[in-house]
Amino acid sequence: MRAALSRDNVRAGLIGGVTVLYLALVGMIERFQDRDVITDVIGLGTLLILIGLAGTGYMASRPPKPRPGRKPVTANPALIGLVAGTTAGVLAGAVILILELLISAGVDVRSVLASVTPGMLSTMEFGLGPVGGALILVGLGAALGAGAGALRLLSDQLRDTVTFTLTAVLLMSLMEPILSAVLDGLSLPDRWLYEGGGLTVLGAVLTVVAAGAGRWFWKEREPQRKEAVALLPADRRTLYRKLAVFAAVAFLVVLPWLVGSFISDVLGTVGLYVLLGLGLNIVVGYAGLLDLGYVAFFAVGAYATGVLTSPASYLVREEGQLFAEKGLTNFWVALPFVVLIAVIIGILIGAPVLRLRGDYLAIVTLGFGEIIRTLVLSDWLAPYLGGAQGLLNVPPPPPEALDLRAPQNVYYLILVFCGIAAFVAWRLSDSRIGRAWAAMREDESVAEAMGVSIIRYKLLAFAMGAGVGSLGGVFFAAKIGSIFPNSFGLLVSINVLSVIILGGLGSIPGVIVGSAVLVGLPELLREFAEFRLLIYGAILVAIMILRPEGLVPNKRRQRELHARDAEAELSVIVTDEATS
Amino acid sequence: MRTSKLWRITLLLAVLALIAGACTDSGGVPAECESDAFGCVEVGAGDPIEVGTLLVITGPNAFLGQDSQNGVVLAADYLDGTFDQVNGEIDGHVISFNHQDDGCSADGGQSGAQSLVSDTAIVAVIGTSCSSAALGVADKILSDRGIALISPSNTGPALTEPSQHQPFYLRTAHNDKLQGAAVANFAYNELGARTAATIHDGSPYADGLQQVFADRFVELGGEITVQDAIQVGDTDFTSVLTTVAANPPDVLYYPIFVAEGGLITQQARQTAGLENTTLIGSDGMLTQGFLDAAGEASIGMYLSGPDLSAFSGDAAFYAGAFKTAYAAQFGGEPGAAFHAHSYDAANMLFKAIEKVGIVDGDALYIPRTALKDALFETQGLVGITGTLNCNADGDCQSTATIGVYQVETPDSLPAAPVYSEVATLE
Amino acid sequence: MSHLLDLEGVSKRFGGVQAVDQVDFHADQGEIVGVIGPNGAGKTTLFNVVTGFYGPDSGKIRFDGNNLVGLKPNQITKVGIARTFQAVRLFGAMTVLENAMVGQHPRTRAGVFGALFHTSSTRSEEERVQAKAGAALDFFGDRLSPRLNSLASELAYADRRRLEIARAMATEPKLLLLDEPAAGMNPAEKDGLIELIGRLRDEKGYSIVLIEHDMPVISGVSDRVVALDYGKKIAEGTYEEVAANQQVIEAYLGKSATQGQT
Amino acid sequence: MTAPATSSRRLRFERLPLRRIILISLSIAIVYGVVAGSAATLRMGTFTAADWRSLVINGIARGSVYALIAIGYTLVYGILFMINFAHGEVFMSGAYTAFFVAVAFGRSGYLNAHPLVSIGAILIVSMVTSTLVAVILERVAYRPLRGAPRLVPLITAIGASFFLQYTFRGLYGAQARAYPTINVLQGTWTIFGVEILRTQVIVVVAAILLWIALFTFVAKTRTGRSMRAVGEDREIAALMGINVDRTIVATFAIGGALAGAAGILYVFLFNQVIFTMGFFPGIKAFTAAVLGGIGSVTGAAMGGLLLGVLEAVGPNLFLTGVGVPSPNQLQPVVAFGILVLVLIFLPGGFLGAPEEKRA
Q1: pLDDT at D50
Q2: A373, A376, A380, best to mutate vs chain D, most D CBs in 10 Å
Q3: What are the φ and ψ backbone dihedral angles of B96, each rounded to 5 degrees?
Q4: Which of A425, A477, D78, D87 can pair with D231 through a Cys bridge, CB separation 3.0 to 4.6 Å?
Q5: Residue D145 pLDDT
Q6: What is the arithmetic mean of pLDDT over A377-385?
Q7: Who's near C85: CB < 8 A, 6+ residues apart?
Q8: Which residue in chain D is spatially nearest to B234 when comparing CA positions?
Q9: Which residues of chain B make contact with A487, given a CB cutoff of 8 A?
Q10: Residue A304: predicted pLDDT
């Protein structure tokens, strides 16, 4: 027992306690308690507390990394978990007690810590009042910590099944808005699975059984499955890969009718960020140019579409009179002109600044983004761009019959645009141009010595990024129909950059996955809107630490990462040889 | 191999249970629902009446939307006559909410509206906070599905222009045309001002108000020296104030929100040349939050907004029971001015539901078009913000009493206005 | 008579240091010129000025009838000069074949349209690029060709040197500038290098200028040798003449050593 | 086998510096706009000399705050070559936490009874909090990414910025709050016959003092030298016995303390706190650091001052003359327009070393 009381475990316990308190003081626990994981059994807020305490035990009982000078502690993981969990429970309980004392002593805690509300305190105390609450926290800390530590004793497969099942239950509950929409869409009653926003007890049991059996069964057959795949002759494997791609596309085509209008709208936004991501990927991923002002081309695309097609725009009203009668001011006619304008602006913006070093280029592009956002908002250009009142009633793309503004239909517009952009990006990446970009990204001066005109290829990447970015703006104008300046802030540029880096720089599937995670997921947490950006920030930090190369890394980028390490080692060897 | 066979059987059983649970169905539907173009909302036995809210609860304007949302929650609470944090009922069905965020932007309004439209149990929606989230976006999406949208704070004139108005859109906020003109009348006639300057923050609300003020002020014979604007999120307004002070006007009108409003008020007091310029703001700043942010600098300035004191009955209720309930549940003073309007909007909706709801055993059917018509027929409904009379274009404050208050102390909002004007939409 | 590469009065200063000082230098068609001199004599700077990395402060540089001053490095490569670097600088994350294919860049024209729609001209050009790159790699026998698809960073040190030369060959140059190709090589590899440089000239017809410290390599390949010290040309002629030159010995061995010798 | 004779016409086309033409024409356009606009405005004479002077003074005060935050940016950049997007939030965390101390002092009357002591206490609370947040930020978010390619820490910094912003919204609430007024800071002082707001004078003086302190610290002290060594070459610095981790933590701590001080000075000027108050100043400070030449402390100070004056004077000077409505709304256009102009001709900013093309 004495070994389990080591400094590391207590420290892990304190960190766990601070985490639980953080979740309480930020107001997450109270606000999440509004949503039941399993109706009338456990709320999401309470679950957060349990996960915090169990997590402490689980993390503390991690097999220690062998560190020189520290003899490995070989205590029983369950005991380590117990110590850590209890410490966390004691810390949390103590602070709650202190807060209660302060409040009872008349100190207005809420004027400082806004989230210390009666609701938060009762959730933390499981409704048992200050003393009872503190004891419960300590007890739960001990029990959950020990339980989580004991998990370490189980066989890998059993432990994996247990954790998988728990996460499956949580996911099933969080996916309630999607699944109930899908079930409604297929007009299947969902009352037995979901009720009042949470899983019913029956639903929870079924999920546990299905997930547990499924996972166990899947793990059991894993060796056989790997062999079967290895045996496949090469051409059969490429056939299967083609089939998989075909199936994926077919699924994407049918998807909106499966999930109903709200999720289709979410898919539309995800698709928009996939398109913008594909464009920015050419600039940052292929040519290695750090662009923090990509919203500029997005805004140009949207406003150019508005000016060229909306009957309210001055151009259509005055100069474009005859065009309007002949019906030329429609979406499809305006599209090529909008992209052309964006490409020209891309070249004008890019030419003078592409020689700048990475961070200088970042601030200059950020500047261009701010300049364009300010111009579209300004009173100076208000007569042309609508200023603060925005550009209204931009007609949806003809033909009228298709009603291309309904979420399920406009989805196909973005699907086509993304298809085009992905095709362009893919074809460019393994062509002469792609090679020039790759060489430039690795070593600019050597690439130039091999005959690559650095400026021309940077400008090409910038102009293509501008074109695809404006395509995103065109889609946005068609989807929303009224364009207001505050949709084009710095946040858009940052979101798109995060999507491509999170997904995996330079990788086309990476952009899709990145957009689904960063744009799709938060849409599910719409109820907890005020915590969306908090969770978004936490996800960014966590993923960048766990997988810096991104979720679906591009093979070449991954090699670049390792090549850089290999080269570093090699250069040390060379210098040794040369000097010896 | 034996254990895996066991697992396979339990899996089979699970799937069977899934299908078995799916075979329940519901009884017949009353005649009115068949005839209604958009059908009825069917509230089953023991189910709640679901009301959606679409207000800005993220980003810099979050305090505005959160405050309106609190007003709606209090209205449902008071439905049973007491503020006991337990929602009242209509025909045995308790009121429940689906709160969504309008993000104060066009795309935020659209995804919020789409989320509400996909929930078929939604009876009606209180929202949006920002005009940019409604105009041509949320109002159209919800109207196309026959879901009534009642806004507590959209004041942009375009939303109820006959050419733009969506059939299912109403608002309890007053039209900017009334407030802007009322402030101009006050400045020109009461204060005797002949020159004025305006500052807006690039939002449709502020830009619309200052333009109406400027047009009316010129119409009365005054002169506009400077019309300038600031960036939301900025904090140093000394240069724009120096621009205004170059040709010192009698009145400086800046109908913006608390964050920038508080700073401009402080910095204006320190700007050489603006010593005898009267500062005027509007209902975006008519809150205790603004007085806290501006501090002593706000003493003596004027703020326009709904004249709450004109109606003796509800003013006492507003200042008394309502404010205490607000503080108890949400901690402290209201963050913005529109909680009163959202409270009235919710009550207007509940009255309409009671009027058109068809009870059939334990179930309740609410025909959507009938509900809309009932809302548009609201006449003489006494609320906190005044008497609601909805006209055909959805303006329920068509005859609103606009008050102009003078700030005496930063510790509390002025009780009664120094000037009040009953204005009617032509 | 006009030389292939002709430098007149070229100088380049970095702040206080006069790296290259009024150097006249030339190389003729099919000739191999060795450039020697102690560290810091301005050899690599001379290469960088010729290949356009930085413009000369003064002097004229002509190559095959074109004035090089003011051209960017990629334009100079197109005109027909290719180079290698003192510390091998390859595209580590690209395969051996891809490194060579980048060399083909100035000799090809495929643009965005070609890349997108795989037009017939682009497809045939890509085949030609692969063939040319393959040919450059095959020049090194079985050293590089069997490892076309492995990463450049995975190659052994000597092979990395060879790949860098192959990449330079792939630009179809007239003049090859080799910057200390023998650095870090053992005696056997050095002999192979001497034989290789000879074949480059005889089979491929390149003119070659190489910077080298290793005297056996210089004497083994050079038709003519130029010695530099403190940015100035101090000697020119055959290897024997330059090796015997008093100033060259002093530059390398320092004053006192030579006194002792006489 | 010699290269095909490239037609000289193609060569001449490439000689035509297309890029240089766009570059020159863009710069001429900006310079023309600036000169013509200023001349027109001065001819119109709407602004008196006193107006221009107050605009410049406002610009200097605002610039001093940018300078203080920019120095923090430059210190971290000089070491890790990383754009620390979350630096704005470090600045906000100190100012917001110290707000509660100020309110407590204010309510008990202590604030105005002993202003110097209470200001000292507020300053200490703010600097301690900011230093703590900066150190924890480095330990949790940036240390694991030491070797990662440059874009990765940038995204982590952006993530940390959002995380910190909405954490403080959860902790302290969403509404804007005003600092209690400190009487001794109200009113103006007359310097050289010019009446300047006391708060503005304090901010400028504090900025100059802290800049000098920082400059000597980095140049003269042992930690300062090790910071520069780690910035030059981390491996070599480690070989020289410098504890790289401790030096980096020290840099973040100093940057954090500076941000805490800047937060209090900012609140003196604008006396309002809200959870989003760090984001825009962070961006402006980063712009100032780049304008002055990222990596140099003096560059950051100068860049901050210049940006402040540019934002204050620019819009009125350049735009009112040519009849552009709401000139102050176009402040970002002026600020970033001039930044682009500077970077075109001085790619490294004023004092930064533009990257020499090393063969």
Answers
A1: 82
A2: A380
A3: -130, 160
A4: D78
A5: 86
A6: 88
A7: A446, C164, C179, D359
A8: D280
A9: 105-107
A10: 93
In angstroms, the Cα distances linking C120 to A16, A365, A429, C129, C137 are 64, 38, 18, 14, 26
Task: Please count the CA atoms within 13 angstroms of the CA of A265 that sit on its side-chain side.
Answer: 23
pLDDT < 70 stretches in chain D: 1-17, 353-359
The alpha carbon of residue B8 is apart from the nearest alpha carbon of chain D, in Å, by: 44
Could you tell me the two tokens for A530?
Answer: 């005020």
Asked if B242's CB is within 8 angstroms of D58's CB, the reply is yes
CATH of C12-80+173-259, one of 3.40.50.300, 3.40.1440.10, 1.25.40.10, 3.40.50.10610: 3.40.50.300
Residue A576 has pLDDT above 70, yes or no: no
**Would an 8 Å CB–CB cutoff place B295 in contact with chain D?**
yes
Q: Look at residue C255 in the predicted model and tell me its pLDDT.
A: 60
- The domains of chain C are located at 12-80+173-259
Q: Touch between chain D and chain A (3+ CB pairs, < 8 Å)? A: yes
- Asked if D172 reaches chain A (Cβ–Cβ under 8 Å), the answer is yes
Chain C residues 217-246 with CB within 8 Å of chain A: none
Q: How far is CA B92 from the centre of its chain?
A: 28
Interior angle at CA A558, CA A553 and CA A561, nearest 5: 135
> Which carries the bigger pLDDT value, residue A434 or residue A35?
A434
Please report the pLDDT score of residue A303 as a whole number.
94
Task: Give me C246's structure tokens.
Answer: 């008093």
pLDDT attached to residue A41: 80
Q: In this model, does residue C258 exceed pLDDT 60?
A: no
- Quote the percentage of chain B above a pLDDT of 70: 91
Confidence band (pLDDT; 50, 70, 90) for A189? confident
Instruction: For domain B41-175+310-398, give the fold.
Output: Rossmann fold (3.40.50)
What residues of chain D lie within 8 A of the CB of B235, using their CB? Answer: 266, 270, 272, 277, 280-281
As beta bridge partners, residue C227 has C36, C235
The chain D residues in contact with chain B (CB within 8 A) are 46-48, 50-51, 54-55, 58-59, 62, 174-178, 180-181, 195, 197, 266, 269-272, 274, 276-277, 279-281, 311-313, 315-316, 320, 325-329, 331-332
Which chains have at least 3 CB atom pairs separated by less than 8 Å from chain B? A, D
Measured between CB atoms, which of C53, C75, C173 is closest to D14?
C75
Give the model confidence (pLDDT) of C24-46 as tens digits. Answer: 888 888 889 998 888 888 888 88
pLDDT at residue D5, rounded to an integer: 43
Q: Which residue of A has its CA nearest to C165?
A: A450
| 3-class SS of residue B124 | strand
* Residue linked to tokens 């189910």: B47
**What is the model's pLDDT at position C261?**
44
Q: Which of D2, D16, D20, D355 to mutate against chain C (most C CBs within 10 Å)? A: D2
Tokens 């503005």 — which residue? D200
Look up the CATH superfamily of B177-309+403-424: Response regulator (3.40.50.2300)
Residues of chain B neighbouring D197 (CB-CB closer than 8 A): 270
Q: pLDDT category, B51, cuts 50, 70, 90?
A: very high
Domain residue ranges in chain B: 41-175+310-398, 177-309+403-424
Q: Using CA coordinates, name the residue in chain C closest to D13.
A: C75
pLDDT one-digit tens code per residue, A86-132: 888 888 888 888 888 888 888 888 888 888 888 888 888 888 888 88
CA distance C20 to chain A (A): 21
User: How many H-runs (helices) and E-runs (strands) does chain D carry?
Assistant: 14, 4
Q: Is the pLDDT of residue B29 over 80?
A: no
Instruction: Say whether B136 and A220 touch across the interface (CB within 8 A).
Output: no
> Using the 8-state DSSP alphabet, how is residue C61 labeled?
E
Cβ contacts (< 8 Å) between A529 and chain B: which residues? 57-58, 100-101, 103
Interchain CB contact of C79 with A (< 8 Å): no
Neighbours of D207 (CB within 10 A): 26
- CA–CA min distance B242, chain D (Å): 7
| pLDDT more than 70, % of chain C | 96
Nearest to D159 by CA among A542, C142, C60, A187: A542
